[in-house]
Amino acid sequence: MAVPARPSRLRAWLLEGLTAEPRQRPGPHAETPAVHKGQRWWRVMCLTGLDYFSTLGYQPGIAALAAGLLSPLATIVLVVLTLVGALPVYRRVSEESPHGAGSIAMLERLLPFWKGKLFVLTLLGFAATDFLITITLSAADATAHLVENPHFTSVLKGHHVPITLLLIALLGGVFLKGFGEAIGLAVVLVASYLALNAVVVSVGLWHVITAPNVITDWSHALTTDYGNPLLMIGVALVVFPKLALGLSGFETGVAVMPHIEGAPGDTEERPVGRIRGTKKLLTTAAAIMSVFLISSSFITTLLIPAKEFESGGRANGRALAYLAHEYLGSAFGTVYDFSTILILWFAGASAMAGLLNLMPRYLPRYGMAPHWARAVRPMVIVFTLVAFLVTWIFNANVDAQGGAYATGVLVLITSAAVAVTIAARRAGQRGWTIAFGAVSAVFVYTTAANIVERPDGVKIGACFITGIMGLSLASRLARVFELRVTDVSFDDMAARFIRDTASRTIRFIANEPDRRDMAEYREKIKQIRADNDVPDGDDLMFVEVTVLDPSEFESGLRVHGEVMHDRYRVLTLESSSVPNALAALLLHVRDETGQRPHIYFEWTEGNPLANFLRFFLFGQGEVAPVTREVLREAEPDRARRPHIHVG
User: Fold this and answer.
1) β pairing state of 568-575 and 555-564
2) How far apart are CA 242 and CA 294, in angstroms?
3) Helix residue ranges, H only, 211-256
4) Are 261 and 273 in contact (CB under 8 A)?
5) pTM of whole model > 0.90?
6) Measuring CA to CA, which residue among 477, 459, 551 is closest to residue 125?
7) Which of 34-38, 194-198, 237-241, 429-433 has the lowest mean pLDDT?
8) Element spanning 488, H or E
9) What angle do CA 560, 549, 506 make, to 5 degrees?
10) pLDDT tens digits, residue range 19-51?
11) How far is it, in rounded angstroms, from Cα 398 to Cα 391?
């Protein structure tokens, strides 16, 4: 018996916390308990900053490669889109989804049934692209800052992939051990990183201002290449989608909402103080980032030779670090590199925590996740292995992953814009509908342009979507006969019906509600008595189930009692699945009365496979055998199982 002890301990360690709800998971995106008072909005902003502000580590270099001399102009277009497009959209998202669920939850509510579920699964694929590429891109850029540091370049040069894999493995190890929330550490990292960037940007601007030929040479090169300002603006409008990395962080901004302290009068339904704090967070973060985006793009374009941005160049993936070493010396540059590596490291941690919170929020509720997906450690291992694969495919190259990252970011922002447009229209707000519709159109164009220019993001996203869809379908099929009613409650009339029959044999008739006239109930009783040889003196009670949303996997069951035509007792139920509702009712009645109830069915006409697909997709179909199978899985003891009769 001692032999299996070790694998048993390993399994217990891996599946620790398996029954925990997603809101109880660790990490910077985890929903906090209701008793948690929260943090000041500016402190929580630093959690967003781990992802958002850390893009300064690689954004200027990618922008220079993508737009060349027009990088500052294209960045200005991006900033305008940030302030008049993304910011208003996510301020509205914070109002519509104040519990950290974000725009995906909004679309889930706005698009019901299977189309909503499939759309959410598609968005989850792009969200996985966004978060996983954040991990791999951040680790790759941290590696670039480490390798290109003058103190280490001779030793580490050419080892980008193994170093990046090591950083990702260490990140996974942190989560396997347990990642505690560290808002205080995030504040220190973000504050120090922004302060160092402010120094670098200030020094860079000083060099630009004190060397007038720099601006003159740049403007002359622009005139030579593009001719006139209108053409420059036109080209900038065309190329700015390549700079979409600078829009990351908005989805994270609403994800951290539960950490923000609310006002004294806040309620769970309407946390006004939390919403107000989130709007301050989003606005302040966007303003800070806008200033750094424009200034960093300007100084890096003017002060760094174009060849240094290319692969193998000293500014590739680390443009501001290049300037830090060039103008402030090796010591300051090393401090800057160290600060950048740390914030990129925690950006990866933030993304991992986002994945661990996002996937369990939806997939288990849809019945579209294997049993172990509720546990943190197996998911950490899966995400870490996928990050290894992505790093290997892209050879730990920051530039190569930029397109995939931008696609994930843009798809999420576009979905948010569409969601708030639909919400504004349903609220009858014509002005906001037009405004958000225009923003949605711009983001659709930006996303499409990015996909056409750099299709890697769609390819990676398609892989994740295919994987999520396939795993979800397999899981739903594997759990198709699982009893998935969370709770059962009876109204007063229904409870009275059960009490009245508790001392006798309890017999139910499964009836599909049709005309619900006296003739229907009379003929049904006559047929059931004839087919099943039920004595005339025994009471029979009808059970009728109405299917609401068959795409839902788990739901509560509310049982209502009514007397039809002054003589027929009917229990009415609403559920996502007829067999599941009936099985849950029978088990509940058994537990309440101590009797094994009987239920009578008619055979369903038609092809068995077609009936199974009707059950799988629409919650109906071959009800009798499926009800029996659900009961068999829920109650292994045959002597305690309710009776199923089919005539």
Assistant:
1) antiparallel
2) 15
3) 212-226, 229-239, 250-255
4) yes
5) no
6) 459
7) 34-38
8) strand 485-490
9) 35
10) 444 333 334 344 444 444 678 888 888 878 888
11) 10
